[in-house]
Structure formats: C-alpha cells, structure tokens
C-alpha cells in the first residue's frame, strides 16, 4: 500500500495555514511586509522630525499635570536646555503656569469641549520670568488613558504691544483731559470777563427756542391763515365783482375799480407769502401726469390776453400738438408768474409764449420787449423780496416773490430754469420739461379749464359754506348772473333744502365746514338723495393732500379768493356737461 504522500495527499502544517507554506510565498509576503515597515518607519521619522523641529512648543501631559513628552521648542520656550532637562525640572506641568488655577481652568474647558483654541495665559520660565502664551489644546485618548496634547506659542510681544497701546491711549486720554481742563478753565475766565456776551447768548438762546416753537406750529398757522385770511377776501372779491357788473355811475365805478385792484394786489401778496412759506417747508409735493401743451397754453392765453390788452401789449402764443410730463398745476404757476412779470414790466411792444424742442425735452419760453435785466443782476432776481431799481420806480408792483416762487417750484419739479436778457431789448425766461415720446390720452385736470362765458339764466345753484359773508356774496353774484340760489351752512341744511322736492342743477361747496364736516361729504349726501348732480369745491385749503382728495372724488376745484371769471366759466362747463 502506498503512503498518503505517495498517493498525492499533502499534509498541511502551520506555515501552510497562514500562507507561508512554501519558499516562494514566504519570499513574496516578506518583501511587502518589509516595505510597509520601512514606510511606517519613514513616516514615524518624518513626524519625529516635525516634532523636534517645530517652531512652536508641543507637549503631552496627563490631566493631573504630569509632563509626558515635550519638543525642543517647548524646552526653549520654558528656558531649559532640552526636553529631558525640562521633564526632570518640571515633573508637574502645573509648575509652569503662573497659577495652578490657570491649568485647572484649562483642563475643565478641555473636558467640557474636547478642544480648546486660543487659550491665553502666562507661564514661568526657568529664570522666573513670566511669558504670555497662547495654547491650542486637544484631549486625546491613548489606550484608554486621557492625555492632554497642546501646541503653545509665545505671544509676549503681542500682549506687550497691546499693553503699550493701552498705556499710550491712557496717556493720550490724560493729555486730552488735561487740555480739556485747561480750555475749560480758559473758557470760564473768558465768561467771567465778558458777562455782557453771556447775556446776549442767553437772549439768543431764548430767541432760538421761540423760533423753533414758531417753526413747529408754522404749518398749522399757515393752514389757518390760508383759510381765515382768504375767507373775508373771497367775500369782498365776489361783492366787488357784482358791483363792477352794475351800472352805478362813472364815479362809483371808478371807486369800485380801485377797490378791485387793491383786493387783487392784497390777494396776490398773500398768496405769494403762503406759497413761499410752504415751499421753504417742503410742503409742496408734485403730482406729475401727461397732458397736452395746447391745453396748457390755451388756459394761459385765455387768462392773460385781456391783461395784455389792458396794458396795451400784444400777446402772441405759439403752441403745438405735443404732450409733456409734469405737474400741470405747479407748471401753470411757473408760467403764470413769468407771464405776469412780462406784462407788468413791459411798457410797450409784445409778449410771446412759445416753445423750443431740445431732443427729448421741451423748453417753454416767455419773451418780452421790456427794459431787460443787467447781466450782473440775473442771479439776484430769483432771491425773495428782490426787485430791480428800474422795476420798482413809481407805483410799487409786488414785493419781489414771483421769481423766487418760480425757482423753488422748478426745484421741486426738477425742471431747469434759464434766463437771458439784453438791457433795453427785453428778456427771455424758460423752463425745460420732459417731452412724452409716445403719448396716450392726455387729460386736463379739473379746475384748469379754458374760460367759456355763457348765461346762467334759470339755473338752480345750491351753495354750501359756513361763512355768512361768503353766502351773501355768492348769492348776490350768482343772482346777478341770472341763477336761482339756495344757501346752506352745512350738510344738514343742504339736505333739508332738498327734502321738499328741490333739486339743484349744480352744487358749490366749501371744503372746510363747521364741526369737522367737509364739503365732499355734503356733496355725497345730496347726491345720495337726489342722484348724480354736477358739483364743484371752492376752498382756501391749498395743501397737496386736499388736492389729491378732490381729484380722487372727481370734483373740480377753485381756490379762494375765487376769480369771478373762472367761477362763471366752471359753472358754465358743469351745466353744459
């Protein structure tokens, strides 16, 4: 019988089981194992080199403070020749810290977080010198034993620089305090020497406080003034207009005409003063829209043609079918002031209202053939209460606010103003406005209507106003124009008048009525009772918020003191519409 070996059966031993059963296999794995060991040794040597040659100190210690290992930089930082000397002299790491509590706090933070960065403290070197250091510390588990591994950096110079900077700041602050004290002492001496100046300063302080209080109530005062002052003036204007249309004799007509002129001058002055105050207080907010240049110029032509004719001047208007973008009410005020000056200060010749296209802008221009303005006075004319000597001779015309208002309104609208003049030949004022490239339907705001005079014979007018003088004046004027007038002081009286079957053709209402009532509510109440009736507002409230409210209600508006021509034109327009 053959043996197992002879029969091809191989007996396995331990070397076979671990893969080293023959010479070739042992040779192959031995080479790989040797290579791996060499790589590990090289890596260990690399890390050891980094450890030994690091610029910052590195150490390892137990939680109790026993120093396990340290690199040369750590020994050098602590003032020892090498790490062996360090371990011999400092077996307990807590000896290095300025106080044992510093190391205890570090260990507590480390146990809580596992990693602490930027921990700053102070260590004591071998020679007893204290150094400021910053540590980055890691809590490491080494075979179940917690170890503290840390990288430590000497930051003494930085900390010293910070201390020096604080000291320098303290020195500077002390110098500033000393200088301040010296200046205070000098100021005290100065106040003692000039008691009269103190009294003046006190008076100025009181005056400033009074001015501030006055400025705070200025808006309320202006609102009250624009109503309370314009109310009686409006009543007087309406009565004078009624007298002018009556045949009361040449002498009486002359006197009434003089009263009419005086009222117009007072109205213009008051309006200018109120407007300049609102502009200075930024109380004017523009409401821009697209509108027709023809509508704008036609309104101005209808208003100024009679004035120019009365002054013996020729008014020429050159317009075009163009659409511009601006606040029509404010732009009208600019052009009205320019035309008023042109007519006022031109003794003979003509006044021209025209335009010139400048790319996507339109220059609206007012030319006159008056005395002209010297070149060195072109800027002065836009200052408030400034009038040229040649314009103020003889009868005084205004107080010099017209162009100041023009400049301020132009600033609000962001429309450039230009002026050119030749003494003895005349002047040209212009305002530049945006031109609408692709205009849609442009509308004319309510209240800016071209006067069209017609008879009011037989029309029924309901007048609502809380001022008795204005009710009397309106009744007199409207009755003289042929209308039948019903008067009411508030909403309740207006509704009572309409309860018996009376239905007016048009409603004329003041905005501010008694007991906090407003005319828009009174108009709405009458319309709710009788249906849609044409209506208009006559008010002394010139605020932007009020104007927006009127526009939202779709109600045309005239400012007090109302011009009879405009009143009649608007009434005709409403009755014909």
Describe the structure.
- The chain is of the alpha/beta class and 577 residues long.
- It has 5 domains: 16-48; 54-154, 2-Layer Sandwich (Beta-Lactamase); 167-214, no CATH class; 229-283 and 451-577, Rossmann fold, CATH 3.40.50.2300; 289-434, Heat Shock Protein 90 (2-Layer Sandwich), CATH 3.30.565.10.
- Helix content is 49%, strand content 19%.
- The protein is built from 18 helices and 17 strands.
- The chain has helices at 14-17, 23-53, 72-78, 83-89, 100-113, 156-193, 195-216, 218-228, 230-244, 250-280, 293-310, 328-344, 402-413, 468-480, 491-498, 519-530, 544-553, 564-576; strands at 57-62, 67-70, 115-124, 130-142, 145-154, 289-292, 314-317, 323-326, 350-358, 361-368, 417-422, 426-434, 460-464, 484-488, 506-509, 535-539, 557-559.
- The strands form 4 sheets. The chain has a 5-stranded antiparallel beta sheet, sandwiched between helices.
- α8 (218-228) packs antiparallel against α10.
- The model is unreliable at 1-12, 14-20, 392-396 and 441-453 (pLDDT under 50).
């Amino acid at each position: 019988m053959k043996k197992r070996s002879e029969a091809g059966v191989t007996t396995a031993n331990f070397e076979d089981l671990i893969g080293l059963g023959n010479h070739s296999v042992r040779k192959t794995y031995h080479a790989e194992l040797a290579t791996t060991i060499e790589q590990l040794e090289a890596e260990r040597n690399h890390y050891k080199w980094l450890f030994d040659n690091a610029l910052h100190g590195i150490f390892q210690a137990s939680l109790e403070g026993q120093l396990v290992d340290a690199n040369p930089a750590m020994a050098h930082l602590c003032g020892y020749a090498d790490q062996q000397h360090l371990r011999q002299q400092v077996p307990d790491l807590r000896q290095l810290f300025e106080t044992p509590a510093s190391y205890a706090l570090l260990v507590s933070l480390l146990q809580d977080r596992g990693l602490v960065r930027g921990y700053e403290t102070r260590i004591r070197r071998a020679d007893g010198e204290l150094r400021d250091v910053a540590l980055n510390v890691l809590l490491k588990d080494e075979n179940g034993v917690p170890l503290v591994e840390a990288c430590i950096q000497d930051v003494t110079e930085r900390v010293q620089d910070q201390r020096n900077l604080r000291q320098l700041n303290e020195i500077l602050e002390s110098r500033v305090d000393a200088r301040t004290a010296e200046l205070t002492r000098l100021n005290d001496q100065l106040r003692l020497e000039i008691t009269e100046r103190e009294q003046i300063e006190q008076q100025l302080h009181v005056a400033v406080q009074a001015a501030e209080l006055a400025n705070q109530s200025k808006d309320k005062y202006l609102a009250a003034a624009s109503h309370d002052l314009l109310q009686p003036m409006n009543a007087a204007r309406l009565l004078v207009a009624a007298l002018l249309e009556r045949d009361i004799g040449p002498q009486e007509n002359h006197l009434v005409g003089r009263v009419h002129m005086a009222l117009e001058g007072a109205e213009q002055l008051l309006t200018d003063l109120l407007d300049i105050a609102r502009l200075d207080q930024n109380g004017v907010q523009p409401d821009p829209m697209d509108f027709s240049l023809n509508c704008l110029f036609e309104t101005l032509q209808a208003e100024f043609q009679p004035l120019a004719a009365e002054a013996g001047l020729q008014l020429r208007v050159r317009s075009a079918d163009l659409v511009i973008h601006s606040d029509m009410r404010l732009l009208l005020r600019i052009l009205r002031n320019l035309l008023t000056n042109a007519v006022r200060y031109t003794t003979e010749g003509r006044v021209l209202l025209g335009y010139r296209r400048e790319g996507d802008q339109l220059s609206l221009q007012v030319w006159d053939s008056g005395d002209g303005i010297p070149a060195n006075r072109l800027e002065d004319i836009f200052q408030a209460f400034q009038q040229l000597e040649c314009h103020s001779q003889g009868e005084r015309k205004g107080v010099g606010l017209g162009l100041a208002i023009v400049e301020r309104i132009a600033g609000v609208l962001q429309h450039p103003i230009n002026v050119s003049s030749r003494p003895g030949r005349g002047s040209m004022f212009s305002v530049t406005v945006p031109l609408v490239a692709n205009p849609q339907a442009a509308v004319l705001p309510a209240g800016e209507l071209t006067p069209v005079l017609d008879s009011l014979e037989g029309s029924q007018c309901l007048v609502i106003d809380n001022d008795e003088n204005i009710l009397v004046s309106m009744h007199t004027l409207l009755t003289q124009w042929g209308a039948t007038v019903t008067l009411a002081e508030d909403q309740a009286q207006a509704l009572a008048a309409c309860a018996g079957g009376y239905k007016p053709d048009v409603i004329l209402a003041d905005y501010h009525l008694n007991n906090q009532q407003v005319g828009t509510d009174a108009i709405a109440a009458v319309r709710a009772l009788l249906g849609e009736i044409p209506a208009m507002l006559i008010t002394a409230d010139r605020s932007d918020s009020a104007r927006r409210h009127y526009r939202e209600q779709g109600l045309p508006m005239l400012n007090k003191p109302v011009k009879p021509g405009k009143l009649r034109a608007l009434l005709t327009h409403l009755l014909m519409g």
